[in-house]
Amino acid sequence: MLNFSHLYSQLGIMALPLLCCSLITLALLIERSIQLLLFSGCSHRSIRKSLNQLNKKDDQGINSLISSLKQRRALSAKGNAMLLAHRDFTKTLREDVAGLWLQEKRHQLRSGLRLLSLIGMISPLFGLLGTVLGLIDMFKDVAATTGSITPNILADGLGLAMRTTAIGLIIALPAISSAQLLGLWADRILSRLEHSLNYTNLWIEGVFVSVESQQSNYQTEKPRSEVIA
């Protein structure tokens, strides 16, 4: 309570909205970073290697791989487990299921980023509003002064105006930049996830892909198909 009272004395009535913006930004940053870190923790190469060691008709081995993948938190593991569990479906139906699942995960990965961008836009406005209110208070003090105007009369109003503007920008910069960076991170996870799902779908269709270090050589029994357009 004492800390908020001090904050209120420094920022005026804009103290509460600016404090809320800063706390929400910090909470979203921590929550989004942890979730993206967990979702990106599985190696696509290990899944590909496991698939290459299996026979398409080895249901026991595939079911064992599905159980192993389901125990992991990474999206690539869960996505491949889901796709392998629907391996007996037709190609079109399997791709529809994978597309719906991927759409849900895309929404989950990007959840909260719009709110971060919104905070980045409105926090400078709160600061600007505090600036205007500080200037209004300063002119009120000037108008109430009958004698000569001294710097002490102007200091409180100008100080409030400058502090709210600065705090608003300090909140906006990490909010906007982190929203963009986390969005890029989420897009990278989704891109690698789509590639992994497409590879697994090819494997289910009986198409085997060999990836070299410098280029990709495709050895196929059927034309290439993709899970995600």
Strand content: under 5%
Structural class: mainly alpha
Number of helix segments?
8
> Helix amount, in percent?
over 70%
| CA radius of gyration | 28 Å
Q: Order of strands across the biggest sheet?
A: 1-2
What's the overall geometry?
Answer: rod-shaped
Mean of residue pLDDT? 81
List the secondary-structure elements in sequence, H or E: HHHHHHHHEE
Main sheet specs: 2 strands, antiparallel
The number of domains is 1
Unreliable sequence segments: 211-225
Number of strands: 2
Distance between the termini: 55 Å
Structural description of this entry:
It is a single chain. The chain has 8 helices and 2 strands. The protein has about 230 residues and is mostly helical. It has one domain. It is rod-shaped, with a radius of gyration of 28 Å. About 5% of the residues have low confidence.
Descriptive tags:
229 residues, mainly alpha, two-stranded antiparallel ribbon, 2 strands, 75% helix, 3% strand, rod-shaped
Q: Quick summary of this structure?
A:
The chain has 229 residues and is mainly alpha-helical. The chain has eight helices and two strands, in the order ααααααααββ.
Please render the helix and strand layout as text.
Blueprint: H1 2-11, H2 15-39, H3 44-52, H4 59-70, H5 75-85, H6 91-109, H7 113-144, H8 151-204, E1 208-211, E2 216-219
Antiparallel strand pairs: 1-2
Helix pairs in contact: 2-7, 2-8, 3-8, 4-5, 5-6, 5-8, 6-8, 7-8
